[in-house]
Design brief:
The chain is an alpha/beta fold. Helices cover 28% and strands 20% of the residues. β5, α7 and β6 form a beta-alpha-beta unit. The chain is globular and about 45 Å long.
Length: 310
């Protein structure tokens, strides 16, 4: 893969100007980075633990937030505002860094058919996140039945992959402007799933097909499936009904599947949004503006809060 292709991967989700931390904040966040060794590679992550959570307190949820292609942990924290949500609600949040030729920027995840450096080098990101969950569960009072994963774009695709590969560790996933490719392996046990897609998204088109805009080099050429096939995949995995019911709320449509007790599969199709984190920070001048009709972080946390493992 050429450097142009790697840069293409970076554009899968352009970090917003407002989401980029100021210079002093960036240095603090870099100083906060922790690391573990996985498969001979040093992998880094930014963990946020609310002050009220002591080492020996009651066990609390863990939310893993994966940045988009070309992003990093600090950008993911700024875009989603999950740290404020964790402080308010009392859970631990971790922002892992993907991999790339640079240590802290232009990073990607190996979601199988995407993206960039991580895909090309066959980086074991499943192994990284599995080891990260174990590391944090040893260091902090993590409830093993309430470990959740969310992510944007390439991070959303990786959320799907982690749900299929680590269902014994992950209770629910929430991919944002992600996709499935149609060749995913069914998980060995149920994982609840909540998805967000933009109907104006030209990067990962909700109707499916090849990636749009200028960034086709970040993929291996496999087209994404229509957004609703994400719901169909997880409905089948979770023993839910095959036909979802829809609710039109004006700026978005919610598709919900009938599932056994304790499981859920839902998909939000945002009519007024493209490739962006709904309710998050504004996009860059070249990026898509997030919808203001709903706050994805709020919706995702409400979903996670009620869908731990039995």
């Amino acid at each position: 893969m050429t450097r142009a292709m790697v840069l293409a991967a970076a554009a899968i989700v352009l970090p917003s100007v407002n989401a980029r931390p100021a210079a002093g904040q960036r240095s603090r966040q870099n100083a906060d980075l922790q690391s573990i060794s996985v498969g001979g590679r040093t992998r880094t992550y930014l963990v946020r633990v609310p002050p009220a959570i002591a080492r020996h307190s009651a066990r609390v949820p863990l939310v893993v937030v994966l940045h988009g292609g070309g992003g990093n942990a600090a950008i993911s924290e700024g875009m989603t505002n999950f740290t404020a949500k964790a402080n308010a609600e009392g859970f631990i949040v971790v922002y892992p860094n993907g991999s790339g030729r640079l240590q802290t920027s232009l990073l990607t995840w190996n979601a199988g058919h995407c993206c960039g450096y991580a895909m090309e080098k066959h980086i074991d990101d499943v192994g990284f996140i599995s080891a990260l969950i174990d590391t944090l569960s040893t260091a902090y009072p993590v409830d093993p039945k309430r470990v959740f994963v969310t992510g944007m774009s390439n991070g959303g695709m990786m959320s799907h992959r982690l749900g299929t590969a680590l269902p014994h560790k992950i209770a629910a996933i929430a991919p944002v402007v992600g996709a499935v490719f149609g060749d995913e392996t069914q998980p060995s046990e149920p994982v609840s799933a909540l998805m967000f897609n933009g109907m104006l998204d030209e990067h990962i088109p909700y109707k499916g097909g090849p990636p749009g805009s200028r960034f086709t080099g970040a993929w291996d050429g496999t087209p994404v499936r229509p957004a609703l096939e994400q719901g169909a995949f997880w409905a089948a995995a979770d023993g839910c009904g095959a036909t979802p019911r829809s609710r039109d709320s004006g700026a978005y449509v919610v598709w919900q599947y009938e599932c056994p007790a304790g499981r859920a599969v839902e998909l939000y199709l945002m009519k007024d949004s493209g490739h962006a984190w709904a309710g998050g920070k504004s996009g860059s001048p070249m990026g898509d503006a997030p919808s203001t009709a709903v706050d994805a972080t709020d919706v995702i946390w409400r979903f996670f809060r009620t869908h731990g493992k039995a």
